[in-house]
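hi support,

uploading two proteins for the ticket. first:
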Amino acid sequence: MSLQIEQRTSAATPRQEARGRAAFERVGVERLSAPFGLRCGALLIDYIVLAGVLAFATMLARIFGDMRRGSTVVLMAGYIAVAVVALLNFVLVAGLSGRTLGKWVAGLRVERSDGARMSFARALVRHTIGYALTAGTLGLGFLLAAFNSRGRALHDLLAGTIVVRSRATRMPLR
C-alpha cells in the first residue's frame, strides 16, 4: 500500500485574492459586530466604575461630616475624581486601545467604520458630544443600535465608528 499526499496550490490571481480578502473582511465585520445586549453590559460596567468612585467620595465626605468644610472639600475632590476617571476611561484609554474598561471586560472594541483604529479626536467626539446627544434623546440614541443593521448607535454615527467583538467567536464543533 502506498500513501499519496496531495498538496493543493493556490492558482488564484492577485486580483482574485484581493476580492476574496475584501469579501472575508466584509463578512468578518458583519459577523463580529457587537450585539446590543453586550454593548449595554459594557456601558453598564463603565458607569458602575464611575458610580463607585462617586460613592467612595460620598462615603469619605460622610466620615469627615463633623467638619463642614472638610466634607465639602472631600466631596468636591470626589466630583473631580469622577471627571478625571471618565476622561481617562472614555477618551485616553479609548483613543489608545479602542476600548473602555467596560468594553475590555465584555470583549468589545471600537473602530472606525472602515476598520481602522479610532483616534483620540473620534473618541472625544463619540464620548462627549455623541453621548450627550444620545442622553438628550432620553436614550433613544442608544436604542438605535438595536435596530440598525450594523449595530451603530447615534454616537457611532456621529463619530463614524462601529463597535465590534475583539475576540473571535467560538464555532461549535460538528
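and the second one:
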Amino acid sequence: MKNTEFPRMHVSLYVADINKTVAFYQSFFGQEPTKVRPGYAKFTLAEPSLIISFVENKEHVLPHFGHLGFQVATEAEMLERLSAVKAAGLGAMEEMGTNCCYAKQDKFWAMDPDGYRWEVYFFHEDVEWNDPMYAEKETEACCSPAMLVEPAKKDAPCCDPAGGCC
C-alpha cells in the first residue's frame, strides 16, 4: 500500500448523557449531528475531516482521558471560534501567548458534559522552553491545566501527566 494518507479520522467516545452531549457538540461544532439513535450520536465534519461518535455508557466514561483539539490556521479564526463558544454559553478557559509543548500558542479550552476537554489553538512558533505552569514535579504536564471552565484559576495545577497530555 503506497498511499500513507488517511482520508478521515474517526473517534468514538463514551458519554453519560447523550442528550447533553448532542446539545454541547451542536454548539461547539456549529452543526447538527449526522445520525442520532437511542444512546448514540454521530457528527461528520468536513474540515477537519473527522467522524466523531458518542455512545451512551456511563460506566465506560474515562476520568483521565487527556484532551482532543484543533489547530486553526489563523489567530483570527481562533478568536472567532472563542467568541462563538462563549456566545453559545459553553464556557471557555483562555490561554493567550502561552508556551506549551515547547511552542508559543494562543488557545482556549472548552469542556463537554462528560469532562472531555477540547483545545482550539493557533501555533505561533516553536520555542526552547515551556511555561513553568506546565511542569509538575519532574514530569512535563503539558497543555491541560485543571479544567475549571469559568472562572479559570490562575494557580490551578496542570493536568495529571499520566492523563495523556502531549
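thanks. also noticed: Helices lie at 18-29, 75-87.
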